[in-house]
Amino acid sequence: MPALPLDEAGKYVAGAYVVFVVLLAVYVAIMAAKLQRIERELRELARFAEQRNGERERERVTTDV
Amino acid sequence: MTPSRLAFATILAKDLRAELRTLQSLPAMALFAVTTFVIFRFGLDRTSLSGSLAAGVLWATLLFAAVLGINRLFVAEREEGGFDAIRLAPIDRTALFAAKAAALLVYLLVLELIVVPVFALFFLDSAAALPPLAAVLLLADLGLAATGTLISSMAVHSRARDLLTPLVLLPLVVPLMIAATGATEPLLTLGGPAYDRFGTWLAVLGLYDLVFLLVGYAVFDFLLED
Amino acid sequence: MYGKGLRTLSIATVAALAAALSLIFFYAPLDADQGFIQKIFYLHVPLSIVALLGFVAGGVYAILHLRSGERRWDAYSYVCIHLSVIFAVGVLITGSIWAKASWGHWWVWDEPTLVSFLIVFLLYATYYPFRYAIEDPERQARYASVFAVTAGAFVPLNFLAVRLAESLVHPRVFATTAGGLPGSMMLAFLVSIAAMALLWVTLVKLELTAKSASGQLKRLRRALDAPAPGAPSRVAPEV
Hints:
B: mainly alpha, 10 helices, globular
C-alpha cells in the first residue's frame, strides 16, 4: 500500500492525537464538576457546623445567667 | 441419588411441568420465530435462502426467540418466592443454576424442533443439512443456556428486567453467534452441505460452552446470597 | 488514604508521556510501508493494551470482592472498568482514523483486533445500565462483580472467535504485534505503553480519591447529623 504524503498523513496523525487530548480534557472536566460538588457540600457542612456551635454557645450563655 | 441431584431433578421437573401447564414461554417463542421468518422473507425479498444469508436469518431468529424465553426464566421464582424457598432449603445453590440451565436447554431444543423444520420448509431446497446442523444447534444451545441463565438470574432482580436481558446478553453471545453461523454457513450452501472448517467452529462452540458453564457454576452461589 | 502518592504518580505520568511523544516524533524512524501514518500506532496500540489489561484488573478486583465481601474491591473494580471504557472509546476513534488513513474507510470489518475491541466495548458499555437497574446497593455490588468476572472470561473467547472468522479469509495487512519492529521503533512503542499504563493508574487513583472524598463527606454529614443533600449517584460505588 502506498504511504500517504506527509501533508495528507499529518492531518490524520494530528487528528488521532487530538482525539486523545480531547478525551483527557473531557475527563478532567467531569472530574472538575465532581470536585466542585464536593467543595460545595463541604462549604454547606462547615456553615452548618458553625451555626450549630453558635447556637450551643448562646444556650450556654442563657443558662449561665 | 445425592441431595444435589435430587434437587436438580426436582427443580427441573417442576419447571417443565409448570411450562407444560401454563404454556407461558414456548408457544410465544415459536410463534415469534415463525413470524420473524415471514418478516425476513419480505425484508430480504427472497423466497429461498442459502449460505451466509440462510445462516444469518436462522441464527438471528433463534437468538431473539431465545431472548424471549430467557427473559421469563426466573420470573416465577421472583414473583412467587421460589428464590427464598431455595435459600431456605438445605441444598446446593448450584443445583438451581444447573436445573434452570437444563430447563432453558430443553426449551431451546423444543423450539428448534418446531422452528428449524419450518425454516427448511420455507427457505431451503433440501433437508440434507439438517442432521449435521443438529450438532451445531445442540452446542450453541448449551452456551445460550449457560449465559442466558446467568444473565436472567441477575436481570430478574433489577428494575428493567426486559430491557437488561437482551442488552447484556447480545454482546455476550456474539462469539457464540460467530461460531454458530460460521459452522452453519457451509452446511446451507446451494448444492448440498459442505464441511468447511466445521470442526474448528464446533471446537469454538464447545470452548464457549465450557467456559460459561464453569463461570456460571463458580459465581452462581453469589447471586443467591442474602 | 487514596490520595497518597497521587502527586508522584502524576509527575511520573507527565514525564513518561513527554518522553513517549518525543521518542515517537523525533527518534523513531518513519515506517517504510506506512510512512508518517504509522505514528498513530504508538497511540492506538498502547491505549488498547492498557484498556484490555484494565478490564482484566476489573475482573480480578471483582473476584477479590466476591471472595472477601469488602465493598472497597467493588469500587476498585468499578473504577478499573470505568477508565478502561473511556480508554476504549479512544481506541475505537483512533483505530477508525487509522483505518481511514491507511485503507480509505472509516471502518473496516476485516481488521479482527479492532472488531473484537468493538464487541468488548459494547459488552462493557452495558455495565453502567446493568448496575443502575439494580437498586439494593449490596446486591448491586455483588452482581456487578459477577458481571465483571463473566465479561473477563468473555474477552479472550471473543478475540479467538473474531480472529478465526477473519484471518483465514483475509491475510492480515500488517502485524500489529511488536514482533517485527526494529529496535528504535520498539523503544518508542514500549515507552508509550509505559506512559499509557501510568496515565491509567493515575486516573484510577484520582477517581478513587474523588470517591473516597465524597464517602468521607457523607460520613462527616452523618456524624454532624446534617440534613442530606440531593440524591447521591446510584451507579458508582463509594469508598
